[in-house]
Design a protein that fits this description.
Elements: H1 2-18, H2 23-35, H3 37-65, H4 69-93, H5 109-121, H6 126-139, H7 147-177, H8 179-210
Length: 211
């Protein structure tokens, strides 16, 4: 059961982190439109290799930090501020973004694979994101830092990333036509999730200080 929870936690974490339109998923979609799905999946394969490494390193770093309770409490407080701010932003401030069209020149599968690795490596957000997520999950006793749980969590994050990339590749034209509607609902969904996390984090912080 714990391994299933770890897998699901990694999957959901990746799904939330990668779903908003960004350079990686939008580039994958445009490669699919201009060069076909095969080249797009080569691009995704390169990106996923780096994502795997980033998530694994983040969880290892989180295990080191976890030995310091004072740092964990600080991270929870910082996390509450971040998720609270994100909730306010997505629910009341965020405007419907226009989907930018990356310029794509036709390239070989090998070049697409390494382009995916390069763009993914330039994105440093996953490391602090997964550090906070894994420590938070551990503090709620739904995740542990043993080798099996770590590998399962990382695998879940990779599966979640691949699924989001697949949706962008397969359904980009529909997303493009209904961008305003989808992005407006996406903001509400993300805002609701970050709001829930913020409330849970606040309760955890209050429990610590009221002991």
């Amino acid at each position: 059961m714990n391994l299933i929870i770890s897998l699901f936690s990694g999957f959901i974490s990746a799904f939330i982190g990668i779903t908003p339109p960004g350079l990686l998923n939008m580039t994958a979609a445009k490669v699919s439109l201009k060069e076909g799905r095969r080249n797009a999946f080569w691009f995704v394969s390169g990106a996923v290799v780096v994502i795997f490494i980033q998530v694994y390193l983040a969880v290892l770093f989180a295990r080191i930090i976890n030995a310091r309770p004072d740092i964990i409490l600080l991270l929870r407080e910082v996390g509450f501020g971040i998720f609270g701010s994100l909730t306010v932003y997505f629910l009341w401030i965020a405007k419907q973004p226009k989907i930018k069209q990356p310029k794509i020149k036709k390239q070989s599968k090998k070049k697409r694979f390494f382009l995916g690795m390069l763009l993914s490596a330039l994105n440093f957000f996953p490391i602090p994101y997964y550090v906070f997520v894994s420590i938070s999950l551990y503090s709620y006793t739904v995740f542990s830092f043993d080798v099996t749980s770590v590998f399962t969590f990382v695998s879940g994050a990779v599966l979640g990333s691949v699924l989001v990339f697949y949706f962008y590749i397969a359904f980009f034209q529909k997303i493009e036509k209904k961008a305003d509607y989808l992005l407006r609902n996406m903001n509400k969904i993300i805002g609701g999730i970050t709001g829930l996390v913020a409330v849970i984090t606040l309760v955890n912080i209050l429990e610590h200080y009221l002991k």
